[in-house]
Amino acid sequence: MAHREYGKLDSLVAGGDLDAIIAEQLTKTYKNGARALNGVSFRVKQGEIYGLLGPNGAGKSTTVRILSTLSRPDSGTATVAGHDILRDPAGVRNAIGYVAQASGVDKHATGRENLTLQGQLQRVPANRLRRRVDELLEWVNLTDVANRLVQTYSGGMKRRLDIAMGLVHDPKVIFLDEPTTGLDPETRAVLWQDLLRLRSERNLAVILTTHYLEEADHLCDRLAIVDHGQVVVEGTPAELKAQIQGDTVALDIEGSADLAVRILGSLDGVLDVMLDGTAVLVRVTQGATAIPPIVSALERAGVELNAVTLSRPSLDDVYLYHTGRRFGSSGEPLSVDSRLAGAGKGSRA
């Protein structure tokens, strides 16, 4: 995959849009020898939600920690809101909000007290702070519970307070590290609407790390898939899914799937066949018309099917396409033998 070239870091305007973040070839190796980042590069525009999508350990949080000046890179350069992360870390910190994966609220204080203290730490002038706290409490829909101890809040309410604390000093950029981890689906969906409002109402650059595929698809204007400390591909969710030709037919096979892989690779309309654990994944040009001949071919060979599932291209397919693994899997990439049934029938876009 060709590396994108960004030019000089002091050029903050690309295509007429202000770049809130420019990262170039960031690397980081920890003392235990683990290579966390291996040349991470990307740009984020002002008013954009940019996602870093990948499983735990991919390098997402390390990237955020470096860009927010909580950690130093071994090499590479970056600017955030026009401030160099190495030459002007104080300028970076003044320009950003940071919401860590673990909640930073004091559960023994009220919501209002948490916000007030955070504003004082950020040196928000006293004559502005009270008005700012009231505004943010209303914005995150916590006005009615502002004077209650945070230990009485639900998980979603605590997370909204975390976000408000990251906004108290009116930053230009906010980093959200796995903001919905641990929330139930309904609460997560409500929080999504708040995150979308950060862009539409406040014109913030939002850097979102997540391992939820649906979340990245729903929220992000653009995203980068991060794997083993590298950006393997980036684009809008629609652009990334458009790279995947056809549909995917997932087959739950009784017994060994090797015979099914060999049979299906010779069928017309089959672009690729691969094993995902015990399942056989068949990428086809048209799912609806491909399923009958697939089922017939397996029946003639005496292969017993437990279930057949048809799906349109998803970010999970994009991740598999670029890494050889299903999203979140800790296993090894698919072997050449597992993919050879598709050789010559289709190529990567």
From TrEMBL:
Membrane-related topology note: Peripheral membrane protein
InterPro entries: AAA+_ATPase, ABC_transporter-like_ATP-bd, ABC_transporter-like_CS, DrrA, DrrA1/2-like_C, P-loop_NTPase
Protein name: Daunorubicin/doxorubicin resistance ATP-binding protein drrA
Main subcellular location: membrane
ABC transporter domain segment(s): 21-253
Biological processes per GO annotation: daunorubicin transport; doxorubicin transport
Enzyme class, UniProt record, top EC level: hydrolase
Locations listed in the record: Cell membrane
GO (cellular component) term, any one: plasma membrane
Alphabetical keyword list: ATP-binding, Cell membrane, Hydrolase, Membrane, Nodulation, Nucleotide-binding, Translocase, Transport
Organism: Nitrolancea hollandica Lb
Enzyme Commission number: 3.6.3.-
Record bears the keyword NADP: no
Listed Pfam families: ABC_tran (PF00005), DrrA1-3_C (PF13732)
GO-annotated molecular function: ATP binding; ATP hydrolysis activity
Gene symbol of the encoding locus: drrA
Family from the record: Belongs to the ABC transporter superfamily. Drug exporter-1 (DrugE1) (TC 3.A.1.105) family.
